[in-house]
Design goal:
alpha+beta, 6 strands, 130 residues
Length: 130
């Protein structure tokens, strides 16, 4: 991982989620090792009010690998303050023949090495236009 301090915030958050997903979908590497490469051991993530710790993040990789989504991230804005990053972005995802558009509001903290330490993520699904 690249440190947040050395990065453009928009590019950092896009790269973080894109490479994390690519590592899950394009390799057979143990999911725990991939999660650990991108998250600190004490990571806590709240996604739409659901609390995820390391073990729950690892469990969450199973459906991701099963459904094999294909997508892109369009970062509209992102700012940093020290180890904190706030971003608003849209994910365009195709999964199981469905096109999804998901607006994301992300607030997180990152370790000096670029791994996620904590996050609050709120999403809103929109109808995908063809």
């Amino acid at each position: 991982m690249r440190p947040l301090a050395d990065s453009d915030p928009k590019q950092f958050i896009a790269d973080f989620f894109t490479t994390f997903t690519d590592d899950l979908l394009q390799t057979d590497e143990d999911a725990a090792a991939i999660v650990d490469r991108y998250h600190t051991p004490d990571v806590i993530e709240f996604a739409d009010g659901n609390r995820l710790d390391r073990d729950k993040l690892i469990a969450h990789t199973r459906p991701v690998r099963k459904n094999r989504p294909i997508g892109t991230i369009e970062v509209h804005e992102a700012i940093t303050d020290g180890d904190r990053l706030a971003a608003r972005y849209t994910m365009h995802v195709t999964q199981r023949g469905k096109n999804l558009v998901i607006e994301v509001y992300f607030f997180g903290r990152f370790a000096p090495d670029g791994r996620m330490r904590e996050a609050n993520i709120n999403t809103r699904s929109r109808t995908a236009s063809l």
